[in-house]
Amino acid sequence: MPGPHPVAMREKVVKTYLKGKLSYRQVGERFGIGEATVSRWVSLHRRTGSVKPKEMGGSRRPRAISPDQETFIAQILIDVPDASGPEITKWLIEEYGKTVSTSSVVKTLHRMGYTRRYGNPKTEHEPDRMLWRKPRVRKSAK
Questions:
Q1: Rounded to an integer, what distance in angstroms lies between the CA atom of residue 45 and that of residue 92?
Q2: pLDDT digits (tens, 9 = 90+) for 64-92
Q3: Where along the chain do its domains lie?
Q4: Is the pTM of this model over 0.90?
Q5: What does the buried/exposed string (b/e) look like for 62-100 if buried means 16 or more CB atoms within 10 Å of the residue's CB?
Q6: Are 100 and 86 in contact (CB under 8 A)?
Q7: 130: which strand partners?
Q8: In sequence order, which residues have a C-beta less than 8 Å from that of residue 28 and are 6 or more positions away?
Q9: Average pLDDT in the 115-141 region?
Q10: Domain 67-133 - what CATH class?
Q11: Which of 75, 57, 56, 66 is nearest to 108 (CA)?
């Protein structure tokens, strides 16, 4: 998806419309943008006093798991590297008393840099047991 139009262009469009001589359609044709775009920018200017675009992408909702809970999860994985997502979720709820979904826990693990791997490379006694691990950072060749 392309990025937003430059603020300087948005300001020119709004300024041209606010002079009162042209309609949304005429301003849009002059600048090569749609009538609805002109309307949105003028409305944004009237509401906020600015035509600066909103941030693109990402969720506007706060994260379900706080930084101190992330630290708790990291400690769990040091102590129990083969802990499953539902197990981590259960321990998190017991520790903090706040309900979180397993999906949120797994997303947090991925954001923290953990990947999944089946089996324990040292013992292989439970090959179907999933392990969480951080990938090794490879040293660059000189």
A1: 45
A2: 899 999 999 999 988 888 888 889 999 99
A3: 7-48, 67-133
A4: no
A5: eeebeeebeebbeebbeeeebbbbeebbebbeeeeeeeb
A6: no
A7: 118
A8: 34, 35, 37, 38
A9: 61
A10: mainly alpha
A11: 66
